[in-house]
Amino acid sequence: MYTPYIIGITGGSASGKTQFLNELIKEFDETQLCLISQDNYYRTRNEQPIDENGVRNFDTPSSIDFVAFANDIIAIKNRKKVSREEYTFNNPNHKPKMLEYKPAPIIVVEGIFVLYYPETSALLDLKLFIDTKEHLKLKRRIIRDNKERGYDLEDVLYRYENHVYPTYEKYILPYKSEADIIIPNNTNFNNALSVVISHLKEKLMGQANR
Fold it and tell me: Which pLDDT score, from 0 to 100, does residue 72 have?
């Protein structure tokens, strides 16, 4: 009987976490690895805080239902299946799917606040921080938010200046020092990705030999 190995992956918004994860999970099948993203634990739109200009701020720790997030991680760790509706950021062109998280020897927990919340940070066996220069994160955020969430340039720039960057400075960057591995992602993360994949495969082999 294996003990699940839980990895937390964090970093600033648009630092490249999703890209890193997509490359990582290609190396494993669903019986080996379960991915849980913080993005599917946002509170409803009406529950999001509103700034002084009347704009909803989705980039604060209070935007996330961290209790449900932690409880689902614990449930999967205890070999229980979990179902949750995908969060689509109110994009009318994206129909939400019902997601099913299945128990696996490796559990990957992803999100900008996974080290900030004590409830999730305490569950992690390995902590990774994706580190990217600010101008690259802004460029990626502009492209992503237009394509996936339908935000125009003015909206993206306003949110980045007033919500995203202040949140990074206050709630994400201070926890960089707690990471076990810091992964630079200004050009590519190939070497770091190879190291993490090798480490996880060693963990799987060790669990199989018990």
Answer: 97
CATH 3.40.50.300 fits 5-208, yes or no: yes
Strands (E), the chain: 5-11, 33-37, 82-85, 98-101, 106-110, 126-131, 181-184
Give 45-92 pLDDT, tens digit per residue: 889 999 999 999 999 999 999 999 999 999 999 999 999 999 987 666
In angstroms, the Cα distances linking 141 to 9, 12, 150, 161, 210 are 18, 10, 12, 12, 44
φ and ψ of 128, to 5 deg? -115, 140
Count the residues in the chain.
Answer: 210
**What tokens does 118 get?**
């004590």
Cβ-contact 168, 130 below 8 angstroms: no
Q: Where are the domains of the chain?
A: 5-208
Residue 33 phi/psi, 5-degree rounding, is -140, 135
